[in-house]
UniProtKB/TrEMBL annotation:
Pfam families: TIG (PF01833)
Signal sequence bounds: 1-22
Residue ranges annotated for the IPT/TIG domain, each copy included: 133-197
Keywords: Signal
PROSITE patterns assigned: PROKAR_LIPOPROTEIN (PS51257)
Protein name, UniProt field: IPT/TIG domain-containing protein
Length: 349
């Protein structure tokens, strides 16, 4: 806590020093616009960190210094036509300290800073960027060359998509979805989305799914003490990856079973370090995972009522190296009756 306070005290003192220096330079210069009537924006820079390098890109909820001339009688400041609050005590003839409003639009916007004074109006090209992109999921994970993949997330403004190191043409995009066609050589590669605000990479590699809206390479599902099994549950609050998830009611000390024995079992990808899945329960409880019928190496997890990521490492199963294939998975309940929600089941690379 002490370090936290010192950090922000130093930031405040640095910003105050910058303001005082600018105010001083204005006071020492008698050529202000109060008499000349000149109104102009010369640059915009961040107000923290001590770096006054001019920029034409800003982020909501961050403070910036607008430098120029003729600001003494400022009445209104607009970013992308959004009326933005400013503190009159943080204004001089040559500088304005202002924080971009949190709700300033960034999509389909004017990309302009506008300052209105009693003597006139000045417009300056300035882009308010979205927050850094957020990557929720993509579907299908087991896509092959030529398949259209949908990427889900947030803040996808003018996205650039890369699979591995290969740039991929965007078929269509909104702020929350991107569609691309999978190029050759994408298997076991990760998807990266970049925007003006940063980049984010998928946590799942292409071709590593056992279940991703549908099952891949299994014989069937079953178990004991289960009911109301729904493989393609589409309730949005119960889906973590793609558009569907598994939902199954289960009684105490029972199991939901996935069989993959046919054709020698589900092949384990090269480089896989274990089995991963997303899971949540109706209420917090313990869940055991049995892999390949090896009940001697049950792996227990404390699973919550919200989706989280879980990984069964090969070492958890008493294995020194990855197996060639996996023949069965059992998700077992503890002594409570509950509901399992399982999604994004596959292999961890």
């Amino acid at each position: 806590m002490k370090n936290f306070k010192i950090k922000y005290l130093l930031s405040f003192l640095m910003m105050a020093s910058i303001f005082v220096n600018i105010l001083s330079s204005c006071s020492n210069d008698g050529s202000g616009s109060g008499s000349s009537g000149v109104l102009a924006v010369e640059s915009v820079s961040k107000a923290v960190g001590g770096d006054l390098t001019p920029t034409t890109v800003g982020f909501a909820n961050n403070m910036y210094i607008i430098q120029g001339i003729g600001f003494t009688t400022v009445e209104k400041i607009f970013f992308n036509n959004t009326d933005t609050y400013f503190n009159p005590t943080m204004v001089t003839d040559k500088a304005i300290f202002v924080t971009i409003d949190l709700n300033t639009p960034y999509a389909n916007a004017s990309n302009e800073l506008k300052i209105v004074t009693k003597n006139g109006t000045v417009v300056y090209p300035f882009t308010v960027a979205p927050p850094a992109p957020q990557f929720k999921s993509y579907n299908p994970i087991n896509a092959v060359t030529g398949d259209v993949v949908t990427i889900y997330g947030s803040f996808f403004l003018n996205p650039v998509v890369t699979i591995g190191t290969t740039p991929v043409a965007v078929i269509s995009s909104t702020l929350t979805e991107i569609k691309v066609k999978l190029p050759a050589g994408s298997d076991k590669k990760y998807i990266k989305v970049s925007t003006i605000s940063g980049a984010v990479t998928s946590t799942d590699a292409i071709g590593t799914a056992i279940y991703d809206d549908v099952f891949y390479g299994i014989d069937g599902t079953g178990g004991w003490g289960i009911s109301n099994l729904l493989i393609d549950n589409t309730a949005p609050a119960e889906v973590a990856q793609g558009t569907k998830a598994i939902k199954v009611d289960i009684t105490s000390w029972s199991g939901f079973q996935i069989d993959m024995w046919a054709n020698g079992g589900h092949p384990v990808p090269s480089g896989a370090t274990g089995i991963k899945f997303k899971m949540k329960l109706k209420a917090d409880a313990r869940v055991r995972i049995i892999v390949g019928g090896d009940w001697g190496h049950q792996v227990w997890f404390d699973v919550k009522a919200d989706y989280d990521n879980y990984v069964v490492k090969w070492s958890d199963l008493g294995l020194a190296t990855a197996p060639a294939s996996v023949g069965q998975l059992v998700f077992g309940s503890d002594g409570t009756n509950t509901t399992f929600y399982i999604d994004n089941l596959g292999f961890q690379l």
